[in-house]
Amino acid sequence: MYNIPILVIVFNRPDLAIGLKDLLAKIKPRLLYVAADGPRDGNDRDLMLCRETREVFSELPWDCEVKYLYSEKNKGCGLAVSTAIDWFFNNEEMGVILEDDCRPNLSFFTFVETLLTRYKDNPTIYSINGFNPNGIDKIKESYGYISYNLMWGWATWRRAWKEYSYNVETDDQIKTVLRKYFKSDFISRRSWLKHLQQVRAGKIDTWDYQWLYTGWKNNALHIIPKNNLVSNVGFREDGTHYSADDKYSKIEATELLFPLTFNDQFKISGVINSTITKERFGNYWLYFIKPILRKYLSI
To answer: Do 36 and 161 have their domain in common?
Structure first.
């Protein structure tokens, strides 16, 4: 039986909920939290699919305590997920967060359990990623550190999540944080200022940009495994952020070797972090013209 509490976040895809439940049956978590957003107004198909999705977790094939947070009305992607995580950490000191389309390799669970315990009192570390978009990295230890929480299968502590705010700060506050954290990387500063402005204006419905910002504000580190431990099977037309050509949808979950080689250097893994910044969160071509932009733009 798995002793770390797990939060499962679902919506209107019952087949994905079944797949995740079947995977969790292999580790038999002792305590499971299930959160579901409500159907969108006037959407009869949502009404049916949300009901079917919730029924998936009404009975489990192992002995497990289950707690439910089911919304009657649709909150949207940002508020639904953030309130679910709030609820989770109002009850637990640490835990694992899985959305319905995450498919971890079973070694993921041992990995996060070990590091949740090891670093529970280290205020610098904010999360443990299961996803590694590079597939595998050439690092000596079993994991490194980056500036980002990558969201697809992850774990954290109440002590870190309590710093989170769903509401976005003012432009001046954001600029101060980004300037301090990203220093001379003005492209990241401009890009993230724009993203956070769009969230504040309601043009982007999300919760995770605010979580990344929380980490930067507090000089946080996020653990990333040596190789990818979580695949995402949700890249299809009924997904909230669907993109048919997303290259990350093709990265398979692989097994992490044990025993772990611990990394207590607590420093950003430069090459890994730079690659993720360029390819996942930035416009890669801009890095080639950075000197020109710096010369002619006051950023």
So the answer is: no
Q: Report which residue type is found at 139.
A: I
Please give the mean pLDDT across all residues of the chain. 91
Closest CA to 240 of 24, 46, 7: 46
For every residue of 243-286, DSSP letters joined together read -TT-GGGGPPP-PPPSS----------HHHHHHHHHHTSS-GGG
Q: Given 69, 100, 131, which residue is the final one in a domain?
A: 100
131 touches 151 (CB < 8 A): yes
Which residue has better confidence, 149 or 135?
149
Report the predicted TM-score, pTM, of the whole model to 2 decimal places.
0.91
Give the Cα separation of 233 and 230 in Å (integer).
10
DSSP string, 84-112: HHHHHHHH-SEEEEEETTEEE-THHHHHH
The pLDDT-based confidence of 285 (bands split at 50, 70, 90) is very low
